Amino acid sequence: MADMIIYVDVVLLENIVMNYIILMATGIIVKAKRSAIRIFLASLMGAVYAIVSLMNMLEMYASIYMKILLSVVMVYISFKPRTWKILLKEILIFYVTSFVFGGCAFCLLYVIRPQDIFMRNGVYTGTYPIKIALLSAIVGYIIVTISFKMVKSKISKKDCFCEIKLTVLGKEKTFTAMIDTGNLLQDPISGNPVIVIEKESLDGFIPRAILDNIENIMKGEMKEVLQNLEEREYIAKIRIIPFQSLGKQNGLLLGIKAEEASIVKEEAEEKILSDVMIGIYPHSFTKNKKYTALVGLDIFQNETIETSIEKEEMTK
Hints:
6-stranded mixed beta barrel; 10 helices; elongated; disordered C terminus
């Protein structure tokens, strides 16, 4: 094969464009704060590395370790993540996006079949026009963004809600709950997880005398409020649960201890959790009542959870 003329400025421009689009797509997917200047500088660094590798100026730069280090530095320069965890997430998305873009470019090159394309030290060069690189970047960007939106939508619909059946003093009621990763509430005495439920949705499940006198009960005026025998059975189950939230640093919830909670997620096996707390929330979570309870994600990882099948075997 005759020696080819390599135009360094063309290779540099192509790599800057591809790197910039890949980094921009990564930033959009991870919802990172983006700066056009920082992304351009990272793209330029990657393009210069491609030139160094292509010309074989320094052999050490062609190693896999240097390529990984380069990607880490490029992502860090582009988005300046606050923690290592965020950095690792951004690097992962950066690689996924790069692979998709590379696959699109290979597909276009296969269709066009240029005769004078070759690879040197991991860098493809030839006479294929820059519009192929741009077209592959655009197609790759569309594929990546649509795919992530579809996956995110699927996860949000299936994994964000569950059905919870609670049992208190022989009474049972089922609630639709949203899985809230920010709900880390626990009973300060027992350490049991707290399921926060709207007050009005507890009507008929918890005595009305309790729901209508939450403030008085938290002040210790239980005997004065709870008159009949059924209501007084709840006295031993009442807890005061401290919580912190945005705009309220020292809040208190009235809690009722439940004997059992059956948790069912879509297409998942029913799980039984004993000794949970019901935190009574005085307001509504949503206007459309799509859900009336909040459950923390850690409740699904609690070691005291047993499947319904295991529970039945234990009672036999």
